[in-house]
From TrEMBL:
Protein name: Polycystic kidney disease protein 1-like 2
Recorded name of the encoding gene: LOC108679440
Organism: Hyalella azteca
Region annotated Disordered, chain positions: 1224-1245
Disulfide bonds: C762-C775
Topological category with respect to the lipid bilayer: Multi-pass membrane protein
Transmembrane parts of this sequence: 182-202, 391-409, 429-454, 521-540, 552-570, 649-668, 915-936, 957-978, 998-1019, 1031-1054, 1103-1128
Start and end residues of each PLAT domain: 225-344
Length: 1245
């Protein structure tokens, strides 16, 4: 909107003469005094325009107000046209008004569509379409009527206006005041971009510091062989380690002593960390096979353990790499409780990891690297794709998405009912989510390509290997400490490389890289895309004006949410699944390792003469004692730490589950409203007022015949369903559609629906049929009439005047949109014969008098329903109302009513509704979490999962939750459909709320079941206390005796209920059916009965009641209590001898004292023994690989005469093939013919 002139401008172009245009406007709110102006080559302002019309005076074309300007009225004008929408104040004329006559607070919502139309024929000489001799006469949304003065074949076309940029308009309206939202948003985004770049630069510097190579403290200056060792810490929140870490490596030629890593600090062994160390040895180890890692568990909880994801050894002399995919915990309180583990090298063994392990690892890595928003904060330290570049790609993605969204944006009227959710003032609509997803699909390949460029672009100059710099500095310090001068220490500490004249072998790069110039090219592309997008968005914002820009920003916010919450995670999961299924696990190191010069180090001549280790001897990597898990102190510490960890999860689980219960309670509480009860009581008092009497009968509770019903309908019903005149006899202006209480608005109009029995469904038995010729029969679904009749319920020709009554025509349930109803005397279908109570009150009363005369209610009538729905905007409640008048076969009328108030919509401005909506979102998130957890439990336990009570309870809770979510969505869709129809017809059409209310009833019942099961689940969470099982244990112990007792109890009780039913069913309503008799008998056991009424009904009542009370209330109930108490005493004695599984209260108190520094933290260090075991005493599972080696050595010497080289698998395969060709083949068993792969045993999780 322009601030100087309160008008909203919309522009369009016409390129050909003889064109016409059609402006369709559909106001979503009050359209009173809305004016539309049209001008050519200028902005329409008061006094300067071509056309001016009031919107409310425009004709309806396709149910929308339409301004149609044909070819004659347009007068061959082409070029730019501008349409303006505003609101006139009272008494202003649309053709003659000034700026003061425009409402400065105009803020109406509307849909606007501009269509340019034309008629064309194909001019063959010019080979082009022409409009000569053609003009547009009239048109609608689907057809165009053309006029022509020649007989050429012609056609018509129309084109909705696409948003274009008019720079003349932009220059004239680029002021800050008129476009404050646009400027503030762009400035805020620019400031946030600058802040993010400063933060990214700071974090990049910190990453460079953390990515340095650290020499191991126990390196010796005389050791010349260099390895670079990289340890990767896992992604778990408790993954960091503060304990002392030891490791050993074993290869073909040699193995290391016990080496230890530097002590933990703020930059080492953190979550997601990649810590690189340089290790020196006296001679090469050869191809690595074993890695043993153990810790002393000395760190503070919970960082006394370590989640080790991967270890990579890089041989700097031979440029070879050895990867150990560990994926294990070194912890006393995790899984198998091992703080000492041995791993096999992944390079020399088949991949033994499962799909879930590969998926877990790859997803974590991809979330850190490929999610463009998350990777800014979780960027791996070893990636050359820095944070500043990631921020640049994110901002480019943001602005390019804004540009594409603006290019295809359509101006849509926003109303509260169009959006199914709100985040503050921002609406979340399904159409906007689909549009946002489409925009992201176009932008995602572009930003993914930019990310790949930054990730794979190599540096312009390679840097020297960091490991060499680190080892030289350490050697220099060590030599100077030994007494050498600085010059000598510097000279002797240098790593000797290969002679310059010696050619170095070519090696393939570990990671394929792009040329160095692609990185600055990527920066240029990002800057150009971002600058161009900002300019175009700025131009569109000024062209649209303030109101449209605000709507567009609200629409684009949905695109931004879809990008963060949906599209990027889908990309991460898809790439992870493909990588887990199709690709070989990547054992390469990070990107920055490819940015270093490959070291060419001189090798000692002695290293070329090394022989492999004897496979018949036990390696030192298995002989070192390390952490002794069989020690009593270690076992006790492991049990204690495991219990503490379990109790931590128990306390946290109870706390989180209580939060879930609080969320669920808020959702349940949102369904309960005292106004619903008051509204129901108000309607029951209105329609069942004791003061409404006739012939000394109170209506409608004492209706006797059809005359009473007609009197009740024409007086109380009609007077209540219409707003009557005020006390001074003035008409109720502005209250059309409201009830007489002037607070509740009718949704649609009320109806009277009759259910009647069909003809010939009953025959009078002999001999009464001689006097009484016919009967109408009893009510039932199968006996209902569904034929069409004339007046007085006679069959006739459709052309007769008496057959023109619509009230005698049957309508089924689908036509009426009604449901089956259960009354006091029977069940009725949703169809029937209907009287519409719409129109003027006098006309309706006259119609009711006429229907009474033609006997619309007769002897075959079984029920008449008064049905309508209302909405109370003050308390935001819908209500369906049903009053059932059942005509008894024995005479008289029985009434039953049901008023169902429900809340189906939310208020935008209500803080309570916003909190409830947030809790509903949390409920959906919790349901997804519980679903994945139950699927994981089913995977672990398989069929045994379904034989445990609590598992079935949790599974039913998950299924009910998903059903609840589905019902919520279905209810919302049904409500929005009714509300749209209500707004479209202004509430005057036939509308029913039965289906939304029915779905809401199911929704409420399932919500109650979810609350019931969720509260009961607290018993499971608190089973760490032995007393929480007392109920289940007591019932299980006495179940056999109790089950036999219950059989006898049910037999005796049902016998008495049957006796009471047959004695009292004629006299007392409480015993009118067998079910009500059973219910009343239970009430009698609880002491709730009317003895005087029973005594008057039958003289045997006192004796029967005395026997029933003694036998049931005294004898049987006490026997049941005795059985339960006996079992309870046994359980109580048994529980007194048990101990609690977990002392949670003691744990919480101890944890509180530690937090409050009232008690020091205990040191949970285990004893680490670095000595070696005697060879004859090696019996642990870590000796198994050496035992296998000894076995292979014996087989080699016995069967292959020593020809088998155990260090070369290829030579072994050759020997096998030679032996197979030379020896005669034996017939093998089918299972022995298979070419089985040798399995690899991992000593890890």
């Amino acid at each position: 909107m322009n601030r100087a002139i309160p008008l909203v401008f919309h522009y369009f172009n016409i390129t050909s003469p003889q064109a016409a245009y059609m402006i369709t406007i559909d106001p979503l709110s009050n359209a009173s005094r809305l004016v539309i102006l049209v001008a050519h080559e200028m902005f329409p302002v008061p006094g300067k325009f071509l056309f001016s019309r009031l919107v409310e005076e425009l004709p309806f074309i396709d149910d929308s107000r339409t301004l149609f300007i044909d070819s004659d009225m347009n007068r061959n004008r082409t070029g730019r046209f501008v349409a303006a929408i505003g609101k006139l104040l009272n008494n202003a004329h649309p053709s003659n008004f000034t700026r003061k006559d425009l409402d400065p607070k105009f803020s109406s919502h509307y849909n606007l569509k501009i269509t340019v139309l034309g008629c064309y024929y194909y001019d063959e000489p010019s080979l082009a379409w022409s409009t000569v001799g053609l003009k547009v006469l009239s048109a609608n949304a689907t057809h165009t009527i053309c006029g022509t003065n020649h007989l050429s074949q012609f056609g018509s076309g129309f084109l909705p206006i696409v948003h274009e940029i008019d720079f003349d308009f932009i220059i004239a309206n680029m002021g800050f005041v008129d476009n404050s939202t646009l400027y503030v948003t762009l400035i805020l985004l620019f400031v946030l971009f600058i802040i993010a770049m400063i933060w990214g630069h700071y974090k990049d510097k910190k990453d460079v510091e953390r990515r340095g190579v650290i020499p191991l403290p126990d390196n010796k200056p005389e050791d010349k062989y260099i390895y670079e060792v990289t340890f990767f810490t896992g992604p778990d929140s408790d993954a960091p380690c503060e304990s002392q870490i030891y490791f050993m490596a074993s290869g073909d030629y040699d193995e290391t002593e016990v080496r230890f890593l530097p002590k933990a600090n703020s930059n080492l062994y953190r979550r997601y960390d990649r810590n690189t160390f340089v290790m020196t040895t006296a001679r090469p180890l050869g191809s690595l096979h074993y890695l043993r890692v153990f810790i002393d568990n000395k760190g503070r909880l919970p960082y006394d353990s370590w989640q080790l994801e991967r270890v990579v050894f890089r041989d700097l002399q031979k440029s070879k790499q050895y990867t150990f995919e560990t994926n294990a915990w070194l912890a006393l309180n995790r899984r198998d409780g091992l703080a000492d583990r041995t791993f096999l090298c992944a390079n020399n063994n088949e991949d033994m990891s499962t799909f879930s392990q590969r998926m877990y690892n790859i997803t974590n890595r991809n979330a850190n690297q490929d999610h463009i928003w998350m990777s800014v904060f979780l960027r791996p330290t070893g990636s050359r794709y820095c944070r500043k570049e990631r921020i640049m790609v994110c901002v480019t993605f943001l602005f390019v998405s804004m540009l594409l969204h603006a290019m295809f944006y359509e101006i849509e009227g926003e109303s509260p009912i169009d959006a199914y959710a709100y985040i503050g003032p921002v609406p979340i609509a399904l159409s906007q989510m689909i549009k946002g997803l489409a925009v992201i699909i176009f932008v995602l390949p572009f930003t993914t390509l930019l990310g790949a460029v930054f990730k794979r672009a190599r540096p312009r100059k390679y840097v020297r290997c960091r490991a060499l710099d680190a080892i030289e500095k350490q050697r220099e310090r060590q030599l100077r400490k030994n007494g050498l001068t600085r010059e000598d220490a510097t000279e002797k500490s240098k790593v000797i490389g290969k002679p310059e004249g010696r050619r170095t072998p070519k090696t393939e790069p570990v990671v394929k890289c792009l040329p160095w110039w692609t990185r600055p090219f990527g920066w240029i592309v990002c800057g150009a895309a971002m600058t161009g997008s900002v300019f175009m968005v700025w131009s569109y914002g000024i062209a649209w004006g303030e109101i449209t820009t605000v709507k567009w920003f609200s629409s684009f916010f949905t695109t931004f949410l879809v990008s963060i919450l949906v599209s990027q995670w889908l990309k991460v999961v898809l790439v992870s699944c493909l990588g887990s299924i199709c690709c070989v696990p990547d054992h390469s190191v990070e990107d920055i390792d490819c940015d270093e010069e490959l070291p060419m180090l001189q090798e000692d001549e002695e290293w070329a003469l090394m022989s492999p280790l004897d496979p018949s001897t036990v390696r030192d990597v298995h002989r070192v004692v390390g952490v002794t898990h069989d020690d009593d102190a270690t076992k006790k510490l492991s049990v204690q730490l495991t219990k503490d960890r379990d109790m931590k999860f128990i306390v946290r689980g109870i706390f989180v589950y209580c939060l879930f219960l609080a969320v669920l309670f808020i959702i349940v509480n949102d369904k309960t409203d005292i106004n619903a009860f008051l509204l129901q009581r108000h309607f029951s008092g209105t329609f069942f007022d004791d003061k409404f009497t006739m012939d000394n009968l109170v209506f409608p509770n004492e209706l006797r015949n059809t005359d009473h019903f007609w009197h009740y309908a024409k007086n109380l019903i009609m007077n209540t369903c219409r707003a009557q005149r005020w006390y001074n006899n003035d008409p109720p202006y502005g209250l059309r559609g409201f009830l007489d209480d002037r607070a509740n608005r009718m949704v649609g109009y009320p109806i009277l629906r009759q259910i009647r029995n069909a003809r010939f469904v009953c025959s009078v038995p002999y001999p009464m049929n001689e006097t009484i010729p016919d009967c109408t029969g009893t009510r039932g679904l199968l006996t209902e009439d569904d034929h069409d009749y004339c007046a007085n319920w006679v069959l006739g020709n459709a052309s007769d005047v008496a057959c023109k009554f619509p009230e005698f025509k049957y309508q089924n349930a689908s036509q009426l949109k009604t449901l089956a109803t259960v009354g006091r005397l029977g069940t009725y279908s949703g169809g029937g014969y209907v009287i519409r109570l719409d129109g003027y009150e006098d006309d309706v009363n006259e119609r009711l008098d006429q229907l009474q005369k033609v006997h619309w209610i007769d002897k075959r009538t079984r029920a008449v329903f008064l049905e309508f729905s209302v909405y109370n905007a003050n308390v935001n409640l819908f209500m369906t109302c049903m009053i059932c008048f059942e005509v008894s076969e024995g005479g008289g009328i029985v009434t039953k009513w049901r008023f169902e108030p429900v809340r189906l919509l939310r208020l935008e401005s209500s803080a309570k509704d916003n909190v409830a909506f947030f809790c509903e979102l949390m409920f959906v998130v919790s349901t997804v979490f519980f679903t994945f957890r139950q699927l994981w439990e089913i995977k672990k336990q398989r069929c045994g999962y379904f034989f445990q009570y609590w598992n079935l309870a949790e599974l039913s809770l998950v299924l009910l939750s998903w059903l609840e979510i589905a019902l919520y969505i279905y209810k919302l869709l049904l409500t929005l459909a009714v509300a749209d129809e209500f707004n479209r017809t202004k509430g005057n059409a036939y509308l029913r709320m039965d289906y939304p209310v029915l779905v809401d009833q199911f929704y409420t019942c399932i919500l109650g079941l979810i609350m019931f099961v969720s509260v009961l689940k607290l018993i499971k969470l608190m089973q760490f206390n032995k007393r929480m099982d007392v109920l289940a244990l007591t019932i299980s112990l006495c179940w056999d005796e109790l089950s036999y007792f219950l059989i006898a109890f049910v037999i005796i009780f049902f016998a008495f209920s049957s006796l009471f039913y047959f004695i009292f069913f004629l006299y007392l309503l409480e015993f009118s059916s067998i079910l009500s008799a059973v219910q009343t008998s239970f009430s009698m056991m609880l002491g709730k009965f009317d003895f005087n009424v029973m005594q008057q009904a039958n003289s045997l009542s006192p004796l029967l009641f005395f026997i029933f009370s003694v036998l049931n209330s005294m004898v049987l109930v006490n026997i049941m209590l005795a059985i339960i108490l006996k079992a309870f005493n046994e359980i109580k004695v048994d529980l007194s001898k048990r101990e609690n599984t977990y002392d949670v209260l003691d744990y919480m108190w101890k944890h509180f004292k530690k937090t409050a520094v009232l008690q020091p933290n205990a040191v949970n260090q285990v004893k680490v023994n670095l000595n070696k075991k005697e060879r004859e005493g090696l019996q642990s599972e870590r000796d198994f690989p050496d035992k296998v080696g000894q076995l292979l050595q014996q087989i080699n010497s016995l069967y292959f005469d020593g020809k088998l080289d155990l260090c070369k698998p290829e030579a072994a395969k050759t020997v096998f093939s030679v032996e197979d060709d030379a020896r005669p083949r034996r017939k093998l068993r089918p299972d022995a013919r298979r070419d089985k792969k040798p399995t690899t045993i991992f000593f890890s999780d």
